[in-house]
Design a protein that fits this description.
By secondary structure, the chain is of the alpha+beta class. It has helices spanning 35-53, 108-124; strands spanning 15-20, 57-67, 70-79, 86-95, 132-141, 149-155.
């Protein structure tokens, strides 16, 4: 594994697209999405993007880790069927024009924590893979209302 970078770069292979934000079945269609529901909606959009656009295969979502002082979750884990690479994808969803958007919410400490959680899951056998890639998907939502336009940016091999 490479040492964590100081900030995610924007690789040339970056993929960006605009999609629509949909409420899940438990959210009233006209109600604004709360923070947790917005995060889940962003993760669903990211998973759909990874599977439908890039042909990756779902391994796990919301994979929790709680070992000693290390606690957290991996948002989306997929596998590239062509190369066998395990792809751990962090999803950051933000609304409005918060300084820097969703990308600004992800820094070196979180990168290191995700690497450590992945290493724990690989060592325990909960995840399997010889090659691991860390992707970042940012989801910037203009409004937390269902049906709002959303900008999704996929940064493969972000750190």
């Amino acid at each position: 594994m490479r040492p964590p970078a100081t900030a995610p770069s924007l690789p040339a292979s970056r993929c960006a697209r605009t999609v629509r934000l949909d409420a899940d079945d438990s959210t009233p269609a006209r109600a604004a999405l709360g923070r947790a529901a917005l995060g889940r909606a962003g993760e669903r959009l990211a998973l759909t993007h990874l599977v439908q656009v890039h042909g990756l295969v779902l391994v796990a979502t919301t994979l929790r880790v709680a070992v000693e002082d290390l606690r957290g979750e991996l948002d989306v884990v997929v596998r590239d069927p062509r190369s066998g690479t395990l792809v751990v994808c962090e999803v950051k969803t933000r609304t409005g024009s918060v300084a820097g958007g969703a990308l600004a919410a992800f820094g070196p400490r979180q990168q290191a924590r995700i690497r450590r959680m992945t290493a724990v899951l690989l060592a325990s056998g909960q995840l399997q893979g010889r090659r691991v890639r860390f992707d970042l998907i940012t989801v910037d939502v203009a409004s937390p209302q269902p049906g709002a336009d959303v900008r999704l940016d996929h940064l493969p091999d972000a750190w």
